[in-house]
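Progress report, Aim 2. The chain analyzed during this reporting quarter is listed below.
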Amino acid sequence: MKRKPTIIEVIKNPKLFGSLPRFTKLETWAAWLVVLKAIFGLGMTAEDLIIFHRHTGRVSPPPNQRSPITIGHTRGLDYNYFGTV
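Predicted structure tokens for the chain:
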């Protein structure tokens, strides 16, 4: 059985989302990629863990545990999205 790609692999793959203009330069997406890794329970590099700690205050992602995540948008209106990490 063929292994399904991770969300990170899909974003980076030029045949999938990687071909979209928004995903051609992922340097500015570092924090969002770490959020996705936490949500999907993917492994993190040492650099990812530093980003994770900076934004959450946690030393490491909780293993198989749900945690609330709030993402705000500020352009005149505030939207709060609640999910689990």
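The two ends are 28 Å apart (CA to CA). The chain has one domain: 7-84. These observations will guide the mutagenesis work planned for the next reporting period.
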